[in-house]
Amino acid sequence: MKQLFKALENAPLKYRVFVTLAVYSGYRRGEMLGLEWKDIDWENNVISVRRTSNYTKLHGMFTDTTKTKKSQRSTKFPAVVMNVLRELKDEQDKQRELMGDKWVESDRLFIADDGSPLFVNNPYKWLQKFCKDNGLRFCDIHSYRHFHASALIFAGVDPVTVSADLGHSAVSTTTSVYCHLFQEAQARTSSVISQVLDFGNDGKTEMKPGA
Q: Which domain holds residue 120?
């Protein structure tokens, strides 16, 4: 991740924001591409997922509801994310002025040069080339969602909160998909208890100061 973000410093702003938000949010690709500027609460640094952007050969590009009802969720973000979003908004406002009446108003965060919604496969193709050009191991967009979830689990965040953050329909989905990670995280609890309880050679338990 450190190598990735270092390389992103020289990437086009649109994709730098896309990858940054993907890592920090854990959103699905369709959720990312469905985000609109009205979904952002700038005052409270909160972004709400309300729709998805999808593509099929039959219907072409289209906007749809989220995968499940619980996928509609709101997330608070740190300044590092909100700052790059403000940069992207400023860039789009300037692009709108340049395009004039050729601009397509979609209100989407991630757009083509004319303002229309970004094609769903573009981030994948760009990232693939970007990783190759920068000597980075390629991981697709969904891998960032897994990284996000893994980081939460190893930080000790409980399954219910992780499930809500990912927009899963049930906690069982989260614990099933990330079963091995939860097991690894839970295995560390014994060492935590050992750090709190100091057993001497005589078998007596002594509470550490502040415990």
A: 2-140
